Amino acid sequence: MVKAFADTKSKAQGVMKRISKDNAVEMGRALAKLTHSSPGVVFKVALELMMSYGNLSDVFAECVRFFTDLTKDVMIWSLLSALGSNQRS
């Protein structure tokens, strides 16, 4: 289980590093496929990168249209959890 989460985390980091306005559709589909296995891990990586790079949030919003309803629920939970944590900078 730990190996699967680590694998998903590394794949999510790879997708999030390659995402741009030009390839938002392709990367959105790739990100949606990753969220099927473990959405919490993917959104943790995505939120960390979006907090670091502000311009990533607009492109990520385009990717959301490929997510399922359950994935969107997990995304909202992850966002609220990140906003409520004391470890924000």
From TrEMBL:
GO terms for cellular component: THO complex part of transcription export complex. Signal peptide: none annotated. GO terms for molecular function: mRNA binding. It comes from the Eukaryota. Residues 31-89 form the THO complex subunitTHOC2 N-terminal domain. It holds the Pfam family Thoc2. This is THO complex subunitTHOC2 N-terminal domain-containing protein. It comes from Verticillium longisporum (Verticillium dahliae var. longisporum). One of its GO terms (biological process) is mRNA export from nucleus.
